[in-house]
Amino acid sequence: MKTLLKKLLVPHNLEYLALDKNFLIQEISLKVQRFADCPEEVVAGNDVRIPFPELVGTEEILIDIFEKRLPNFELKAMTRLLENGSRLYFDMYIVEFTNDENYQRLIIFFQDVSDRMALEQTLVQATNEMDILLSTLAATNNYVEKIITSMAEVLLVTTASGKIKKVNQAAQDLFSYSESELVGQQIDALAAFGSSLQALSQEPQHLQTNAEVICTAKTGEKLTVSFSCTAISTDIKGFSGSGPALQDFVYIGRDVTDRQRARKRQITQYVTTRILSASETIKKAIAAILPVICDSLGWDTAELWMPESGEKLLSETKRITAVSDPNLLRCVASWTKRSVSIPKFAEFTEQMTCAFGEGLPGFVWASGSSQWIADVAKSDSCMRREIAAEEGLHGAFGFPIVGDYDPDNSAKSVLGVMILFSREVQCFDEELLQIMATIGSQLGQFIKRKQAEIALRESEEQLRDLFENATDLIQSIGADGHFLYVNRAWRETLGYTEADIAQMTVFDIIHPNSSPESLDILYQAITEQTVNENTLYPDSIELTFITKYQEKILLEGSISCKFAVGSLVAIRAILRDITARKMTEDALAKSVSLLLATFDSTADGILAIDRSGKIVTFNRQFVEMWGIPDEVMALRDEATTIAFVLNQLKEPQAFQERIQSLYEQPEAESYDLLEFQDGRFFERYSQPQRLGNTIIGRVWSYHDITERKQAEDALREEQEKSEKLLLNILPKAIAERLKKNETTIAEYFPEVTVLFADIVGFTALSAVMNPIELVDLLNKIFSGFDLLCERHGLEKIKTIGDAYMAVGGLPEPRADHADAIAKIALDMQAEIARFNANNNKYFSIRIGIHSGAVVAGVIGIKKFIYDLWGDTVNIASRMESQGLPWRIQVSETTYKLLENKYLFQERGMIEVKGKGVMKTYILIGRKSGSSSVINHLADD
After folding, report:
1. Chain centroid to CA 388: how far?
2. What are the pLDDT digits (tens) for 760-783?
3. Which contiguous run of DSSP H or E holds residue 222?
4. Which residue has the higher pLDDT, 140 or 507?
């Protein structure tokens, strides 16, 4: 070993072995044993493959190195499990060495690489963990990206300085910018003039709430967006490296433009209604409404245009030039925001007029409908186009102030026009036009009402003196039901003071017992407001008034309504006391009620009797229906009349007993069906005759229903025919379900047996035989099959040409379905044989049978048929089509159901289309008592 160490310059961390050509150890280093699998075997003279089994199988490589055909060989990362449980990793390097004496050896160097391997494993583990983290981070980023993309809300991420870093799809859709157009821009570029988004990030985080910011889209459209702003740390230090981490800001926004717009428009309608209800004059109402409309809806200036009659209503004008033409519109009122300066436009507007159809005001006036101009600077129909463009006005729209219906023009009259302007181009807004049309209608009604009130006051003063001295009660009430005027006689009769009358409405003193027609007129006029100038009033009205002392006074008189330009302004009535006359009319009510109860009971034969049984009245139909002589009716005795009619009835005793029972129960109503000896039928009704709450007699009515009874009997007979026809087409259970309006019927039957039978040679015969004769033959054969189906309790499904299909086990399941089908199959062969003998024909029959599950039902809405679907049907059809004449071919499934009762002949395996090879059998007959026909077929 020392000799080799002297020859080799070996690093101190290496150990070695020297081998001869036979792989025997010649020399070892001091610590080489620790690398061996069996350290005790590392001694000179031993085969090196014993302590180092890794070298087994490398012998050819070692010889190549020894003979210098290969320079060296390495084995990397060999491992040993040490006694303390740790692992030793080492590399082996094999080279050839020849000393000065030309003595040749193989040298194996061993290097301990445990530390390196541990470091490599640590690095590998760290790398794997990093890959997992990166994969998780990528998945998380992808998940977050999908969330951001699918968000309905706007998302903007900015730096601390307000520069946009990221946007989602919702932001691009809302503002109409692409991502590339937004990223890198300042966030305040999206805010409208006077608004700031970045200011949200300056608020303390604990004080931040959602803030609504006016934004501008790429199209120029103004949007109201509710934003929240949250700061997020980026983990990036400032430039000095010692300061806090930089922050980004996340803005989440929701478009509330429609909600804000709807709220403002709702407020506009509400405030307008409040102003109109509270304003005493038209001038005050217009002065308050114009700024409300502009401020609430975001428009800059508003104008009211009216003809001369409307201008007088406002009573004040700044116009210098006098205009007397009533067919011209003038601007009678206007309002402009303080922040808007349009002096030239306002001065020009004050001096101009518009004829019918001229300019925007004239066009709205002529059309009677709202009009919209997106930009007046580009509109040829705007007379003020140039001056509007000069002073920065663009968007405009106008709507009519409409009054009542004008029959001459078949439309509502236009009282005026309101025009609004904006400094911005405005897109068409159908909803806004509809809202303003409603406001225009409200303004029109307000103006008409104020005009009517003025006219009413003038008229009332002229008539007051005349009414005050009248002896009748005279009153005038307004459209709201309050008293406008009552005369002295009215006050003295009812006892109410002026103070009382001022607080009352007409409904406070009307008693509910007043005539319905009179009450209806008042309710229609005051509550429902449906009375107009064309309404027809009753010639007289009857009212019951309650005096101040709670006495009832019956009044009769006339009523009239006062209208002003189509609007109801007053209801006038002249009344007189009719209390005494009313008492006389009540005395006549008994005779009137008797007549009404008698003849209103029925339009057929009528008989009225009193409580004592005396006939009070009857009509001619009653006498003719019963054939009662006049002399009998003249007696007015019910018993005599009944005795005359009893012999006409089939059940006279029941007839008489029913009459007697009604005498005992005078309050009861009755119905009878009377059958006559001559075949006629009468319906008899009766009800007590009442006067108030008192029963004073009974009214009988008779209705001849003979023809109806005959028709009902005929209808019943036809229904029975239809029922039979339906049952010939469908199973009874299915027919019952169809009659209950089940549109689709489908049921699953797990165990049925399907039969297909085909007349062999019939198709060829159809080419040479007369069609009618051919069908007649087929009908005879299939009629015989139908009788067999009934006999065996089977269901015929259908015929297809000369093929016949039947099934056992549905629609009512039965355990012997296969047995029943086997019986009918044998009977069909016998039926064909019998048919041939009787008709001198030579038809043969081919039958196929298979058992299994099917779906059965009725589908469609016309020409119903009960049909089957499923693989069982297909196999049964193949059993028939691939069978033999005069043979009944069955599947193996059916054979297993019948093998204990019937004789079979195995046909063997046959190729069945769509199913492959199947084993089939020929049904010969029952195992006992076979018929001669079956024996004959078996012999064949």
Report:
1. 49
2. 877 777 777 788 888 888 888 889
3. strand 222-233
4. 507
Q: How far apart are CA 667 and CA 565, in angstroms?
A: 57
Rounded distance between C-alpha atoms, residue 273 and residue 279, angstroms? 10
Q: How many CA atoms are closer than 13 Å to the CA of 623, on its beta-carbon side? A: 12
**The 3-state secondary structure of 430-474, one letter per residue:** HHHHHHHHHHHHHHHHHHHHHHHHHHHHHHHHHHHHHHHCCCCEE
Closest CA to 785 of 840, 732, 845: 845
What are the tens digits of pLDDT across the range 522-532? 888 888 888 88
In the three-class reduction of DSSP (H, G, I as helix; E, B as strand; rest coil), residue 196 is classed as coil
3-class DSSP string for 117-178: HHHHHHHHHHHHHHHHHHHHHHHHHHHHHHHHHHCCCEEEEECCCCEEEEECHHHHHHHCCC
Cα gap 350→355, rounded to integer Å: 15
The CA-CA-CA angle for residues 310, 314, 320, to 5°, reads 90
Residue 934 pLDDT greater than 60, yes or no: no
Q: How far apart are CA 169 and CA 165, in angstroms?
A: 14
Strand 844-858 to 887-891 pairing: parallel
Tell me how far the alpha carbon of residue 426 is from its chain's centroid.
35
Coil vs helix vs strand at 335: strand
First to last CA, the chain: 109
CA distances (Å), 274 to each of 269, 446, 450, in order? 9, 12, 16
Give the CA dihedral 574, 576, 579, 584, nearest 10 degrees. -100
Structure tokens, 840: 């001198």
Write 841-845 long-range contacts (CB < 8 A, 24+): 841/777, 842/761, 843/759, 843/760, 843/761, 843/762, 843/781, 844/759, 844/760, 844/761, 844/885, 844/886, 845/757, 845/758, 845/759, 845/760, 845/885, 845/886
Which pair of tokens denotes residue 606? 């009528």
Distance CA 813, CA 750 (A): 9
pTM of structure: 0.38
Judge whether residue 13 has pLDDT over 80: no
Q: Which two tokens stand for residue 300?
A: 């800059």
User: Is residue 442 very low, low, confident or very high in pLDDT (cuts 50, 70, 90)?
Assistant: confident
Q: Which residues pair with 110 in a beta bridge?
A: 15, 92
Q: Please name which of 24, 19, 18 lies closest in space to residue 2, comparing C-alpha atoms.
A: 18
Q: Report the mean per-residue pLDDT for the chain.
A: 83
The answer for 65, left when phi > 0, alpha when psi is -120 to 50, beta otherwise, is: alpha
Q: Which residues have a Cβ under 8 Å from the Cβ of 127 and sit 6 or more positions away?
A: none
Question: Which residue's entry shows tokens 């070993």?
Answer: 1
d(CA 363, CA 207): 53
Q: Are 925 and 931 a contacting pair, CB within 8 Å? A: yes
Q: Phi, psi at residue 636, to the nearest 5°? A: 55, 30
| Burial class of residue 81 (count of CB atoms within 10 Å of its CB; 0-12, 13-18, 19+) | exposed
User: Phi and psi at residue 147, in whole multiples of 5°?
Assistant: -60, -45
What is the per-residue DSSP string for 14-38? EEEEEE-TTSBEEEE-TTGGGGSSS
| Rounded-to-integer distance, Cα 355 and Cα 371, Å | 16
Q: Taking the CB of residue 784, how many other CB atoms lie within 10 A of it? A: 16
Instruction: Kindly write down the DSSP assignment for every residue of 711-725, as one continuous string.
Output: HHHHHHHHHHHHHHH
Give, in degrees to the nearest 5, the angle at Cα 808 between 807 and 812. Answer: 115
Split at pLDDT 50, 70, 90, the class of 744 is low
How far is residue 116's CA from residue 317's CA, in Å, rounded to a whole number?
Answer: 104
Q: Would you tell me how many other CB atoms lie within 10 Å of the CB of residue 856?
A: 24
Place of tokens 């009239």: 560
Beta strands in 740-843 (DSSP E): 745-760, 795-800, 803-808
Report in angstroms the alpha-carbon separations of 665 from 670, 694, 699, 811, 852.
10, 14, 14, 55, 69
